[in-house]
Each structure stands twice: as C-alpha cells, then as structure tokens.
Amino acid sequence: MSKNIDKMSFTTRAIHAGVEPDTATGAIEPAIYMANSYTLPYDASQMNWSASEANIYTRNGGVNQGMLEKRIANLHGGEDCVVLASGVAALSALFFTKLKKGDHVIFSTVTYIATYRIFNELWCEKWGIETSIVDCTDVENIKAAIRPNTRLIHFETPGNPTLCICDIEAIVKLAHEHGIKVSVDNTFSSPYNTRPLEFGVDYVVESLTKYINGHGDSMGGAVITDHETCEQIRYQAQVNIGGCISPFNAWLITRGCETFPLRMQVHNDNALAVARWLERQPCVSFVAYPGLESFKGHELAKKQMSHGFGGVLSFGLKGEHDLYNRVVTHLEVFTSAVSLGNAGSLIVFLGEDDERMYLYPEEFHGGFYRVAIGIEDKQDLINDLKQAFEAEGLATVD
Ligand SMILES: *Cc1c(COP(=O)(O)O)cnc(C)c1O
To answer: CA–CA separation, 392 vs 127, rounded Å?
Structure first.
C-alpha cells in the first residue's frame, strides 16, 4: 500500500486502505480465504499458539479479517482494530478484556439493548462488576456517579433509540481527569459522520453489520483503539472467548466499505428530508433526529458529526397502540424489521411496554417508531409514509 493513501480523503481510503491486488494470481479484488487453519513453519515448537501476528488458526485471525481490520482502523484514524463476529461480540470482547471483578462502569441510559443487559444485569450478577446507569447527555450526572473504582464510561451518540446526543469531548475530559477510560459505540453515526478517536476517546466500537457492510447480508463488529489494547483483546477475548468473524463475512464487509461513504451520504440526506416532512405532519407527536433544529442535541451534533446526522430517526403518532401496527401494514417501501444501515428502509414499532421505556424522555412513553432510513429515492419514502397515514384517516400536509 502506498503511504500516500493514508493522506487521501475518506472516500478514497474506504476503497483502497488495507487491500492490495493478489500477488499470487494478479486478481484485482481479494480472494476469500475460507480456511480454518494455516500451514505451520518448519519448526513450530517455538510458536505462541495464542498469538495473532502470524496466521495459525482462523479464531486467532486470518487474511480476510486482517484486511478488514486495516481498512476500519484507517477510516477511524486508529492505530489498530480487531474485527469480531458481531457488534455485540466486539462490545463484550472489549468489556471482557478491560474490566474485572470490583470495577465500576458508568453507562448511558440510552444504549443498545445488549449493552443494557450486560451492564444492568448479567455482568453485575455473574462477575461482580458494579455499574451505574446515567443520563450521559449531562456531564454533571456522570461527575456525580464517579467512584474511586470507576474504570470505564460507555455511551452512544446518537443513542439507540432516542437519538440523544452526548458531548464526547466534555466526557473524555472529565474521565481522563479521573484516570477513567471512555468507550463509544459509534454505530449510529458511523466513521463517515463521527470519528470519536479524534475527540480523545479510548475505545470505539462499531457494529459493522449496519452502515459499513450496508447491504443487510452479514454481521460483524469492530473495536478500534491502540495496538497494545487490540493485542490484549485478540489474546484474551478473540482467541479464548471465540467470537471470531467468518472470513466470508469479513470479505463482504470489506467490499461494503467501498460504497459506504456514498451510501452514508444518501442515508444522511434522506433521513433529514423525511424528518423535516414528519415534523410538519399534524398526526405526528414528536420527531427525534439530531439534524432537526428543534432537537435538543442539535448544536452539539453539528460539532461532532461532519457530513450529516445519520440515517436513524424516531417518531411518535397521536394515537393509540394499534394505530402504529395498522399504519405499518400499509407501507410498501418500508419493511417492518429491526436493524439499520441496509439499502432498504426499515421500521420497528417499540410499544409502551418496552422494558427500557422508563429510561427514555416522556414523549417516547406512549410507544414510538424507530425508523432506519435507507437509500431509496427520498420522495418515494415520504410518499410511502403519506399514503400509509392517509389509509388510516390521518391528515397529512406536503
Ligand atoms: C446493532 C447494534 C449493535 C449490535 O450489533 P450486532 O452486529 O447486531 O451485534 C450495537 N450497538 C448499536 C448502537 C447497534 O445499533
């Protein structure tokens, strides 16, 4: 790889970083190495069987994983990256490696469900990790929750599913003054919009399943941080816990990277257009999207997000529980499904009985939709919502 690539723009690096033409065949695209193991050197007796620097066994790493790791590290401006089977595998690999019994973690009220269960329930009960769940949109709340044994502050910005915005720089400053590490799950923003390492964050986690792969056809996760920590994660979590990614999925996600900046720009633009339209509808009770001037974290989001505000928004309807279900049955472009970052738009109704509703702002309490805006034509998306609202007798405006 020419060293100049590293100085080029994000879009160019998304296509070229980490992958070179295959020297064995001349193929301009990388092969998929579906091997579980690699041939050993003449004298293997001195090898470190848990290492990842040489190709030994696919749970330690491999050719396709290595290419993806270089590309993702590059896009985040990180020294190194570990890729794993899913976003959750990446989160738990990081937490497993960096935390131990008696440590205290502060985590945001608005996180991915698995993060909530890990820190609110599973790891406290099983492994004696102390945790505090804190509204991280106000740094004062975090300050008040710090204990002598606090080791990690973990949050998402925008948070899933309320889209709340946390001040990355202010949290990092507070944490580092107290010798505490900071991890950010950057999945909703993606490295196209936000690169948290630039704000001093210690560990970044991405669900590659979402925008970076982008086509809804594979799962993966990444931790991006310094080389030493990545080596610890490989040695402790990847090799010994085993959440390794399939070489095929690593290859798919490497390919997805090439169009990721283009796709992400369309997600950003489409979501803003849909959010603005929704905000004007009399039947809509609220719209949560960081790109709206009316949104609480908008000014901060503008500071932290460079090209746009992502493809996810949430909104409520003025109506009862089943109205949400009925509206969904009329949609022709949107699919009722979880996940985000796919080419196609997805919508999910989170009802008022959702287990974490008590943690969300008041307007969410009656239930709401989380919408993952895809890269279809934006007017088709708006028209689809419009006809679905009208089919239920809801008045709309253009
Ligand atoms: C989807 C998601 C995850 C989990 O990723 P998987 O690849 O599904 O395991 C983690 N964090 C956020 C914010 C997500 O949206």
So the answer is: 50
| Domain coordinates in residue numbering, the chain | 5-257, 260-391
- Ligand 1 pocket test, pick from 160, 162, 194, 208 with the greatest ligand atom count within 8 Å of Cβ, gives 160
Q: Which two tokens stand for residue 133?
A: 């769940």
Q: Using the mean position of ligand 1's atoms as its centre, give its distance from the Cα of residue 221 in Å.
A: 8
Q: What is the dihedral of CA 287, 291, 295, 299, to 10 degrees?
A: 170
**pLDDT tens digits along 216-262:** 999 999 999 999 999 999 999 999 999 999 999 999 999 999 999 99
Alpha carbon distance 130, 136 (integer Å): 17
DSSP-assigned letters across all residues of 223-238: EEE-HHHHHHHIIIII
Which residue lies with its CA nearest to atom 5 of ligand 1? Answer: 87
Tell me, using a 6 A CB cutoff, whether residue 88 lines ligand 1: yes
Between the CA of 220 and the centroid of ligand 1 the distance, in Å, is 9
Q: Is the beta carbon of 112 within 6 A of some atom in ligand 1?
A: yes
Say how many Å lie between the CA of residue 163 and the centre of ligand 1: 14
Rounded CA-CA distance 168/137 in Å is: 10
Pocket residue to mutate for ligand 1, from 92, 210, 252, most atoms within 8 A of Cβ = 210
Task: Check if the beta carbon of residue 136 is closer than 8 Å to that of residue 167.
Answer: no
**3 state SS of 245:** coil
Contact 310, 297 (CB under 8 A): no
341 CA to centre of ligand 1 in angstroms? 11
CATH number of 5-257: 3.40.640.10
- Percent of the chain residues topping a pLDDT of 70: 99
What pTM was computed for the model?
0.97
Nearest CA to ligand 1 atom 11: 112
Quote the CA–CA distance of 110 and 116 in Å, as a whole number.
8
- Type of residue numbered 298: H
Which residues are CB-neighbours of 22 under 8 A, at least 6 positions away?
28, 29, 30, 31
The pLDDT tens digits for 323-334 are 999 999 999 999
Ligand 1 contact, 156 CB (< 6 A): yes
**CATH superfamily, with its number, for domain 260-391:** Aspartate Aminotransferase, domain 1 (3.90.1150.10)
